[in-house]
Specification:
The complex is a heterodimer of chains A (about 300) and B (about 950).
Chain A (H helix, E strand, L loop, with lengths): L1 H44 L2 E2 L7 E2 L3 H9 L1 H33 L4 H13 L2 H12 L6 H9 L12 H30 L2 H9 L5 H12 L1 H16 L3 H7 L11 H11 L3 H27 L1
Antiparallel strand pairs in A: 1-2
Chain B lengths: L8 H18 L4 H6 L18 H6 L10 E3 L11 E3 L9 E4 L6 E7 L3 E11 L7 E7 L11 E3 L3 E3 L4 E2 L5 E2 L3 E3 L4 E4 L13 E3 L2 E11 L2 E10 L6 H6 L9 E5 H4 E4 L6 E2 L18 E4 L8 E8 L3 E11 L7 E7 L11 E3 L2 E8 L1 E2 L2 E2 L2 E3 L2 E9 L4 H26 L11 H4 L3 H23 L4 H18 L8 H18 L4 E10 L11 H14 L7 E2 L11 E7 L3 H19 L1 E7 L12 H7 L6 E5 L3 H7 L12 H5 L11 E2 L2 E2 L2 E2 L5 E6 H6 L8 H14 L4 E2 L5 H6 L17 H15 L9 H7 L4 E5 H10 L7 E4 L4 E2 L5 E2 L9 E4 L8 H11 L2 H15 L10 H6 L4 H11 L14 H14 L5 H22 L2 H9 L1
Parallel strand pairs in B: 31-32, 31-33, 38-39
Antiparallel strand pairs in B: 1-15, 2-3, 3-15, 4-14, 5-12, 5-13, 5-15, 6-7, 6-14, 8-11, 9-10, 16-29, 17-20, 18-19, 19-29, 20-28, 21-24, 21-27, 21-29, 22-23, 22-28, 25-26, 30-32, 33-43, 34-35, 36-43, 37-39, 37-40, 41-42
The chains are: A mainly alpha (about 300), B alpha+beta (about 950).
Chain lengths: ~300, ~950
């Protein structure tokens, strides 16, 4: 009896809502094939020893053991990635929100929006090339040239070769590039805030823009803020292109080595796919966990 | 950090001055020392640009005198550096001819002139051998080079299409290759840059003279050398007055690509143009419907067209051409009919810049020119000449030379690392600087005006001239800023250098030649917008069906095909097409093996990137043969058991004799050899003869000489040495090695490796060689007049640094002298790309693949390929084949080749072992720690690297089960 009602309920549910699911279908199929399946395969591969030529061999958790216990470069990559994520994630996030908030109050904001968004739609390799004009390591590099002229340094700084400066250069370029993405979302969010709320707020005694921001705009923009945060985090943990084009792969003394370059190193230079998958799984879990934490924090 | 620093130099002078003053006070004799003080590098000599002036300068000082002597120099009376050889029956000539080769060297004649006047020299010659390169000789009169242009003259060969254009399997046309027309040619000596439309003119007084042909390159036979009076060409007005009043017949149109009879440079060939108005139209396929284009741009390149007219009479000639390459700057041609420029107006014919096709009827302001042509065949020759640009180009060259000498003086004063805040008092210490700067400003301004007049608008090049003028002017006003703005001067030099080359480029694409009788109007055809839309649309539609990665074939229908192999080429499509054409016409008919070629971008095949070849192998779709892959790949793939061991083939040993044996080191793994070398380079010491000569700096033979003599001499003059950041030469010269004999461990823990690493890092920490510098640019400015470079630098200097011609040379690497006195110059990095055969499910095609590799690495095939390649892309694409004999037969400079061969004796390549792909990064890290970060001692850094490399090696050994095996055996 119970089962029958249930089936009937399910049948009715499908009959009522099938169109909605039909619309979802293409996305669900693509998402499964291109995102969920690879993630699962990566999980499975991370438990094997696989070099692309010979069949994979099951080794249990050995890859993880090697990764966490035996691989110093992995920890170097982890620390680089965390430093990068801690600085670029929040900084990019706040800067893009700030830029969106300021721009939203200006005239010709679409033109400004395009200017801000342009870096993030350009390939990061192309942008790094432009930036390398600034950070070029000989004395003809723009920054070196200026510093030499002012007399702050005696000989050119090897920006992308000196382990001490590599991360700095990567971060500067990354912050500048990461602004665009969140920025567009925030701008859309700002424009969606109901204008009448501001009038009401003014009547209720809001005195300045910052109060307006705190009591009205921010609470109204929760979904965009969340989306932006998740975006910023995934982007920060996935840093690759910029690191490689600034410092090369492998970078001098692994100074620009990140989790994803570590992954790439093992996958496409050493062809140790099992090990690379283990790195991928770690990156996935890390990103996912930090994402959850940030969501929890922002919800409150 | 650096012991030798340029900056304190002014202090040094102060000290010197003080010392001089003291001396003067102390003893009156020392007053003479005052005279010497300026010699210590503060006063420059007046600048001379060439060893000799330009011909135009020489002739400007003389007035034309018509000579009347016609002297044919007897071949038997010539004297050479060695007894001269004579030969009969060369190319069907009965007469005995003189052989001018390297042993004969410079050949001299004596002659006596009865009348003074302006003379020219006519030579009847045939270039011998099959190298395809022009012969080069210089001319000296009375023992000296009369002017710069006579220093080197080209004696060209003649080339023509070797057959008809064919259509390949994907519908594109394939050009016939260019083949040499061996035979006798006659030339009235002319400059090889196309500076002048007239031949070289020698003003001579009456009396005894000698004329010398100095040997530069290529053997040639000489049948006659004549001294003839120079007679200027008459003007059109004079010539046309004598025309009979007969109108010709018909309106004849010839397709330029069809009527080309010969050219003196095989680069000038048929081209494909997409514009729908061009006949025949291309419609998305490649149709060779035009001729010349950007390949036809260098001074002196001549094309001869043949056409016939049906009746005697007067004709006009129109050319359908396009010059859309040089923004705003016209191209020029000298036009001759039947080997002679008919009237002076045709010495320089101008074709304006235009992005559309134009029909140019030969003529001037007062109307079209008429040509009186007899019935029958005629030749129309068009030769690239610079016309009015010659003067600009020549002044520009003087400016560049002047600028580079100024730069050298400045860097000598300021040192390698100018202090922008220090007042060097440039105008005081370099007294000529202000004058020279002013001269530059005037010159460049003048050239800007001249270019403006020629093009009638402000071209992009012109505005760049102006910005240089502004920079220089502000430097003159405020010389203090010169130190700060040294870079701008360097940039200016680079720009002027590239404009110097750019201005000499005179491209012209030609579609049709129309010969119109009398006043018959010449039809003008241009594509409409609609036609262009249709054409573009057809092209777009075609892109869905045409496979652009596949290289089309032109196999003869009757060829018997026994088997087919698939070949991937990691080079550009043009390169692959030549391989395909050669394989189809040569390899397949002979072997019955058809070759299918696909082009794969080189970046996708290199080791250490997600690599299409790797993916193809894992998915079972790998090609049979790969050409042009990086040299570490074969062993990497061999380790994974996916490459064929070539040493299994019977004639493998014999085939390897084509290459330097050392090149096989990185291609060998265990007992097997997994690839054949395809290209090779070299590493040498490059130095500026002029700069080193000026400061009396010696070229080091050993590294002791480098440290104790050359470097101090360089530093004293504010100059720097360039050391490539490469550990390998140091390691090998000290007798070290990267790996132990069995390849199981690294050998970098030996005392030799330590000594080498110490010396290597000290090159940067102690002697402050810059870690990061553009050697090419600083070599040009003279700041780094000596340093280590490779094949690509050699090409760059030969093709892109016009102001340095004859001012640089090669020397073997400064080596390490051991106790017995022998100098070890070992270096790696010789091997370029390689060719390999991939394993398949069945081994039945391996034989065919091996035949193909043998054919491809053959001397003649490689030589033909090198020539075709150079003909197609130009000398900047010179094919550095790994086939030793083919390499030697390329057009090398004699001295350079001697150095390259010496360096070959010291080739030492690094083996590839399990896990070695990751060794380089640890050596680099050690270098970074010591030199860049400076946070580790040499020993610690190297030990760290050893530890890490051993770890990497062991990981890979474990992965492939080698480590376990060995230890098991050992235990």
């Amino acid at each position: 009896m119970v089962a029958k009602t249930k089936r009937g309920g399910f049948g009715r549910f499908i009959r009522t809502y099938w169109k909605g699911y039909a619309f979802q279908l293409p996305f669900v199929v693509l998402f499964t094939v291109f995102v969920i399946a690879p993630v699962l395969v990566a999980f499975a591969l991370s438990l094997t020893d696989y070099n692309m030529f010979q069949p994979a061999e099951f080794v249990g958790l050995k890859n993880y053991e090697l990764l966490f216990v035996d691989d110093n470069v992995f920890w170097k990559a982890m620390s680089n990635t965390l430093i990068y994520a801690v600085i670029v994630g929040p900084l990019g996030y706040f800067l893009s929100f700030f830029a969106a908030w300021v721009l939203n109050q200006l005239k010709m904001r679409n033109a400004f929006a395009l200017a801000f968004y342009a870096p993030s739609i350009t390939s990061s390799i192309a942008m790094s090339t432009v930036w390398m004009y600034f950070f070029s390591s000989d004395r003809y590099g723009l920054i070196n040239n200026v510093l030499l002229e002012v007399g702050l340094i005696d000989e050119p700084v090897l920006w992308n070769q000196n382990p001490k400066t590599i991360m700095l250069v990567i971060i500067i370029i990354a912050v500048w590039m990461s602004m665009g993405n969140g920025f567009l979302v925030f701008l859309a969010g700002l424009q969606n805030v109901d204008k009448s709320l501001y009038e009401a707020g003014a009547i209720d005694g809001i005195q300045n823009r910052f109060q307006e921001l705190k009591y009205l705009t921010l609470p109204q923009m929760k979904p965009q803020l969340l989306f932006g945060a998740i975006n910023a985090i995934t982007a920060a943990f996935g840093v690759f292109d910029i690191a490689v084009s600034v410092a090369g792969l492998p970078s001098p003394n692994y100074a620009g080595h990140t989790l994803v370059t570590h992954l790439y190193d093992y996958a496409f230079i050493r062809f140790q796919m099992g090990y690379a998958s283990a790195v991928a799984v770690v990156v996935f879990i890390l990103t996912f966990a930090v994402g959850r934490v940030v969501m929890r924090l922002l919800r409150e | 950090m650096s012991r030798y620093h340029g900056k304190p130099k002014p202090l040094k002078w102060l000290a010197l001055a003080a010392a001089v003053a003291l001396l003067i006070a102390a003893c009156p004799v020392a007053a003479a020392a005052q005279e010497q003080a300026p010699e210590s590098g503060t006063v420059t000599e007046p600048v001379t640009s060439h060893s000799a002036p330009y011909m135009s300068t020489v002739l400007a000082d003389e007035s034309y005198v018509r000579g009347s002597d016609e002297i044919s120099l007897p071949l038997r009376e010539a004297t050479g550096e060695a007894p001269l050889a004579y030969q009969a029956a060369v190319h069907g000539l009965e007469q005995e001819v003189l052989l001018s080769d390297e042993t004969a060297g410079d050949i001299t004649w004596r002659f006596t002139l009865q009348t003074a006047g302006w003379y020219t020299i006519r030579v009847r010659y045939a270039v011998m051998g099959s190298s395809g390169s022009s012969a080069a000789r210089g001319v000296q009169l009375d023992g000296k080079v009369p002017y710069f242009e006579a220093d080197s003259l080209a004696f060209d060969r003649a080339f023509c299409n070797s057959g008809e254009t064919r259509v390949n399997s994907i519908g594109d046309e394939v050009r016939p290759s260019m083949e040499e027309v061996a035979g006798w040619q006659e030339i009235t000596l002319r400059d090889q840059n196309g500076f002048y439309a007239t031949p070289l003119v020698f003003p001579l007084v009456a009396g005894e003279h000698t004329v010398t042909l100095t040997y530069l390159s290529q053997t040639m036979a000489i049948a006659a050398v004549e001294i003839l009076p120079y007679i200027p060409t008459e003007s059109y007005a004079v010539v046309s007055a004598a025309y009979p009043n007969v109108k010709g017949e018909g309106l004849l149109t010839f397709q330029a690509e069809d009527v080309m009879a010969s050219t003196n440079d095989p680069v000038v060939r048929q081209q494909s143009a997409a514009d729908p108005s061009v006949q025949p139209p291309s419609d998305g396929y490649r149709v060779y419907n035009t001729l010349g284009g950007n390949a036809w741009r260098q001074g002196g390149q001549t094309v001869n067209f043949t056409f016939s007219v049906p009746a005697d009479g007067l004709y006009r000639i129109a050319l359908r051409v396009m010059q859309s390459w040089n923004d705003g700057i016209a191209s020029h041609r000298t036009i001759a009919i039947d080997g002679k420029v008919p009237f002076s107006e045709l010495e320089t014919v101008r074709f304006d810049y235009n992005t559309r096709w134009q029909t140019v009827t030969l003529g001037d302001e007062s109307g079209d020119f008429y040509f009186y042509l007899k019935e029958g065949e005629h030749t129309l020759s068009m030769t690239v000449t610079l016309g009015p640009l010659t003067e600009i180009v020549q002044t520009l060259f003087n400016d560049i030379t002047l600028l580079s000498e100024m730069l050298l003086e400045i860097s000598k004063l300021t040192g390698n690392d100018p202090d922008p805040n220090y007042d060097y008092q440039f105008f005081k210490y370099i007294p000529t600087l202000e004058r020279d700067l002013n001269r530059l400003v005037d010159d460049i301004q003048e050239q800007y005006d001249a270019i403006y007049d020629l093009s009638g608008k402000a071209t992009s090049m012109g505005s760049n001239f102006i910005s240089i003028v502004k920079q220089l002017e502000s430097m003159i006003k405020d010389p203090f800023t010169i130190a700060k703005r040294y870079n701008q001067l360097v940039q200016a030099q680079t720009n002027l250098g590239s404009w110097y080359l750019e201005l000499q480029s005179q491209p012209l694409l030609i579609d049709e030649i129309t010969v119109a009788a009398g006043d018959t109007p010449v039809p003008i055809r241009n594509s409409t917008l609609w036609q262009r839309i249709v054409s573009t649309w057809k092209n777009f539609i075609l892109s869905f069906t045409k496979d652009y990665n596949n290289v089309g074939g032109v196999l003869d229908e009757n060829t018997v095909i026994k088997d087919t192999i698939r070949v991937w080429i990691a080079r550009g499509t043009e390169w692959a097409e030549v391989v395909k054409e050669m394989a189809d016409s040569d390899f397949t008919p002979e072997s019955g093996v058809q070759v299918n070629i696909n082009v794969v971008p080189a970046a996708q095949l290199s080791a250490g990137s997600s690599n299409v070849l790797m993916l193809a192998i894992t998915s079972g779709t790998a090609p049979d043969v790969v050409l042009g892959i990086t040299n570490t790949s074969p062993v990497e793939f061999a380790i994974r058991d996916s490459v064929v061991d070539l040493s299994q083939f019977a004639d493998f040993k014999k085939t390897t004799e084509r290459f330097l044996p050392e090149l096989f080191t990185p291609l060998t793994y265990g007992e097997g050899v997994y690839a054949l070398p395809e290209t090779m380079g070299f590493t040498c010491l490059f130095y500026r003869t002029d700069v080193l000569g000026k400061y009396n700096i010696s070229v080091p033979n050993t590294r002791d000489e480098l440290y104790n003599k050359t470097l101090p001499q360089l530093f004293e003059n504010g100059l720097t040495y360039y050391q490539t950041p490469d550990y390998t030469p140091f390691l090998y010269q000290h007798g070290g090695a990267y790996y132990t004999e069995d390849g199981m461990k690294t050998a970098l823990d030996t005392p030799e490796a330590y000594a080498a690493f110490k010396e290597y890092t000290e090159m940067f920490t102690h002697y402050s060689s810059p870690v990061n510098a553009s050697f090419f640019n600083r070599f040009r400015t003279g700041e780094m007049p000596i340093g280590i470079g490779n094949y690509s630098l050699y090409l760059q200097l030969s093709t892109a640094a016009p102001e340095l011609v004859g001012k640089w040379a090669l020397a073997p690497l400064p080596g390490l002298q051991d106790s017995t006195g022998e100098i070890n110059r070992s270096t790696g990095g010789m091997l370029g790309e390689v060719d390999m055969i991939l394993k398949q499910d069945s081994d039945k095609k391996y034989g065919c693949c091996w035949e193909f590799l043998k054919w491809w690495s053959d001397e003649d095939v490689q030589r033909t390929y090198a020539r075709e390649n150079e003909a197609m892309v130009g000398v900047e694409a010179r094919w550095n084949t790994a086939n030793v004999n083919a390499f030697l037969s390329l057009d090398w400079n004699k001295q350079d080749l001697a150095v390259i061969r010496e360096q070959w004796n010291w080739a030492k390549e690094t083996p590839v072992v399990l896990g070695s792909a990751y060794a380089g990064r640890h050596v680099n890290n050690a270098f970074t720690s010591v030199v860049v970060a400076g946070n580790m001692s040499v020993r610690d850094a190297l030990e760290n690297a050893v530890k890490n490399i051993n770890r990497e090696l062991r990981t890979k050994q474990e992965e492939y089960g080698v480590y376990a095996d060995k230890t098991a055996k050992g235990g």
